[in-house]
């Protein structure tokens, strides 16, 4: 081949690649637009009632315990509407209870939906709050209190949607459960994990869960945007204890190797495990949906997140956001290093540490542990696992996810839905591990300040937010039953 021909061939290849870049895009999600009857509901009136119930619920202090009082409150609302309620106590602990209420559907063997929420809340730092956190204070349209969002607010939206299904006598194709659990904030030993282990029968015929884990946001990702991030997956956790020993000595004459230095060299290398960006189909769909509401040139790049030519640009964006990094990478956090120092000129003989590694669904938590353990051998660092948990994922092409995605933009025009992978875990991870399909969404549009209130200060929820949440959840349940009926024809 002559030099000229080679030039033409190369030019043709470059043009072909450019053409591929322009034409080929990833794909987004596939929402199902609502098609069921839109029942006439006075959501304004309902959200005022829900607000008043939320005030009462927030006054019941359930900081990592005392769920019984919260459960009795929910029970009283359900029983007034003639819904039978079961309260299940963790053996030997009268305060740690969960609550179950059910509406039975036509086909009780499969397809049931569980609306799940937790009664416990986390503690508060009183010095940070500008309002009392356990008085259910209302100022204008806003109700303040620990748990207003996480998760008493969402729990009440679920309860109101559940009661609407009953009161309007919506024909149910499958079972519907309202489930309020204990102990979610302290890893669910007395709540979900106990129920799944000792009361598995409760969940026969159920297939789906609507839970916390994702939320709607406005103006956060992109100015003017309204984005409902529906959580469909959670990362796994690899929590490791580290220990290295060496000779002690004088700080003036350091040996080549000693404990503190070995630990630091090791940690330096472990951190490199968290630098590879992995974009799974769902992450590509997440970026694609954001692209749909972005201006050029971002829209061009976001819709082509796995294009090798554009990868560099996207990587820059991901690098600059800890949230995006957590969604697309295994991460390593150094959460403790201690060389047990005794004096500034003394080299000590032992250094201990802890790291919190989070793995994407699809990366094995056990393989990650083994990898870090063998790295440890290189530096003389002993690595032991305190807790290993796999990442979990539910499909985003299934009916309930697609229906929820369709309903949010019907209720809030101009809003989009994305498939969201959350770095932390919720009770959904225990259900997913048993095959349930779980989706997490607080169906409300929050500002970033409001989101900071979760586990933070001045947590609050407004009446219009309650209204939006009740409507989205109720219409999702209506559409789901409608869809099931159409599909079974
Ligand atoms: Zn929560």
Automatic annotation (TrEMBL):
The keyword Mitochondrion does not apply. The keyword Metal-binding applies. GO terms for molecular function: hydrolase activity; metal ion binding. Its cofactor is Zn(2+). SUPFAM superfamilies: Bacterial exopeptidase dimerisation domain (SSF55031), Zn-dependent exopeptidases (SSF53187). InterPro entries: Bact_exopeptidase_dim_dom, Peptidase_M20, Peptidase_M20_dimer, Peptidase_M20A. Pfam families: M20_dimer, Peptidase_M20. Residues 233-377 form the Peptidase M20 dimerisation domain. Keywords: Hydrolase, Metal-binding, Zinc. PANTHER family: ACETYLORNITHINE DEACETYLASE, PEPTIDASE M20 DIMERISATION DOMAIN-CONTAINING PROTEIN. Belongs to the peptidase M20A family. This is Peptidase M20.
